[in-house]
Every structure is written in structure tokens, then in C-alpha cells.
Amino acid sequence: MHPRLQAFQTRLQRSPLTRIDDPIVSERGIRLWLKRDDLLHPVVSGNKWRKLKYILNDALHRGADTVLSMGGAYSNHLHALAFVGRALGLNTVGYIRGERPLELNPTLLDLIAWGMELRFVSRQDYRQLRGFKTCDSLPGLKPGQYWLAEGGATALALQGVAESAAEIDVAFDTLAVACGTGTTLAGLIGAAPASTQLIGVAALKGGGFLTDDIAALLNRSGGADRAAWRVLTDYHCGGFAKTTPQLLDFIADFQRRHAIELEPVYTGKLLYALYDLIRNGYFPAGHRIVAVHTGGLQGKRSQT
Known Pfam families for this protein (predicted)? Predict the structure, then answer.
């Protein structure tokens, strides 16, 4: 690992497992744990660090001085990239979906404070940017510039995500995670024991395409596809970053009872889905579930 990245990693905490005891869970004979990747770092938490780790290691070893990537106005990915980029001495550029707002939100202000250059692009141009998948594929890249696909969706990201699965020190039958690009689920699929099943909960409406995207990412990475897996597409609550009163009530109640902060874009929807599945008998009695808290709590600011 590059020395600069190794030095930053020493600032991270180990991600613990927290047992979740609730009447609805125990009554169905289910055991549920939460993998607390949200506790890895106060800013660069969850799957954002997991995905960036080996990507930035590759960029540094290639001699890159600038990393360019893309995301929305509340992007957890860009938020993490800007912070780590500054810590590693890398310049960062973020292509932001949509027109520049008259008043910048807290996420965008953070990006600027950490030295990221913001480039606002139309939604049409943003869709075109999604077509560039490799580090040298963006047209017009200059020497020393490294392109990173949306959400860090590259084969290198899977290596860091796999480390999260390797840290789970309890036996489990199902491993569950929220899905945006599907990269985190792909990394877990490649690392989980063959006897387990994996569930992804799509955070966006019309998430059926994620199944093909995940399969393609596994194929490009040469990763194993041993375990059974599926993506659930009915718990998006109206679409990406959309909520319902039921979801918000669930999150508030969960936080009150367990003192674990959730956000409504990803992990809130994940646990909302799992509780619904448990309530409706989807899992047999005695089933053991580990859900991954992928962090991204800064994104809650989009709801205020």
C-alpha cells in the first residue's frame, strides 16, 4: 500500500458488530446484527472508504496528482473523495449533476472547503459521463489526472468492500446492504461464504438494472459469484433520496430504541425493508442476518 494511504488508514477505527434486539425480531426467532461501518471515521465512513481505499492506492502508485469524479449535490462519494484527497495531497475535481444553485448546500460547501473544484454539468452531459468506466477513459484527461467512475464503481472498489465481509466474526445466513450503484453488494458477493445469501435493497426507483450492473462488475473484476443473491426493488419509498412518513417514523423509532443514527437514503431503507421481510415471514426461524451500515450520515442534511 502507498505510504500516504497507509498513514491515513491508521486514523480509522475497526468497524464493530452490534446485536439488534427487537420484539419483532426475537418473536420470529431471528438474530440480527448491524455491521457498523458508519463508525470507521467521522467523515470518511462506511462503504465510501471501503470503495476508495484501493482506487486511491492505484492512483497514487500511478503518480496521479488529481482525481476527477462525479456525483449529485449531496454525494457521499464526492464528500469522502474530497476529504481523503486533501489528506493525501491529491487535487480533486467533482462533476456535479445539475445547474449550480444560487445557494450552495452544506455538502457542496464541504467539498469547496476541502479543495475540490466543482464543475456543474447538465443532466444530459452527466448521463454521458456515466459511460466512462476506466481511469483513463474520460476524454481530455491531462497527464497526472485519474478518472473515477460514479460512486467508485470499479473492480478495485470490490477489494475494499470484501474486507468488510472478512471482518464479520459471527456465523450468518444472510448478508444485506443498501444499493445505489450496486458496487458494495458486488464486493460482498465475491467475499461471502458460498452457503450464504445476499440481499441488496435498491435505494432508487426502477432499480431492476442493478442486477445486470452487478453481474457485469463481478465479471470485469473476475470476482467469485458463488453465493445466492438478489436485489429487492420495492423499498425505494418513492425514489432516490425520497422518503415516506412510514420510513421516517421507522428511522426515528429505531434511533430512539437503539441509539444508532440512520439516514433515509440508504441504511434507513435497508433496515425498513429487513423489518418488513421479517414481519412477513420471509426468513425462517433461527435465521441469522448481518446488515451493513454503510455510513453516509452527512446525506441526512438533504432532508432538512
Answer: PALP
Locate 216 and state its grid cell: 457485469
Is 3.40.50.300 the CATH classification of the domain at 3-42+155-303? Answer: no
Among residues 16, 10, 29, 9, the alpha carbon closest in space to that of 288 is found at 29
Cell readout for 158 is: 470490490
Task: Please report, for residues 23, 24, 113, 118, 287, the alpha-carbon distance to residue 30 in angstroms, rounded to integers and kept in the order given.
Answer: 10, 9, 45, 46, 5
Distance CA 135, CA 139 (A): 11
Q: Do domains 3-42+155-303 and 46-152 have the same CATH topology?
A: yes
- Asked if 58 and 300 touch (Cβ cutoff 8 Å), the reply is no
Considering the domain delimited by 46-152, tell me its CATH architecture: 3-Layer(aba) Sandwich (3.40)
Inter-residue contact 140 to 11 (CB < 8 Å) = no
Cα separation, 68 vs 266, whole angstroms: 24
Among the options 75, 122, 137, 302, which is catalytic? 75
Per-residue pLDDT reduced to its tens digit, 65-110: 999 999 999 999 999 999 999 999 999 999 999 999 999 999 999 9
Q: Are 64 and 58 in contact (CB under 8 A)?
A: no
Q: Domain residues of the chain, as ranges?
A: 3-42+155-303, 46-152
| DSSP states along 54-91 | HHHHHHHHTT-SEEEEEE-TT-HHHHHHHHHHHHHT-E
| pLDDT per residue as tens digits for the range 224-280 | 566 799 999 999 999 998 999 999 999 999 999 999 999 999 999 999 999 999 999
Which H or E run contains 123? helix 123-129
Indicate if 26 belongs to the active site: no
Compute how many other C-beta atoms are within 10 angstroms of the C-beta atom of residue 109: 11
158 DSSP β-pair partners: none
Compute how many other C-beta atoms are within 10 angstroms of the C-beta atom of residue 235: 18
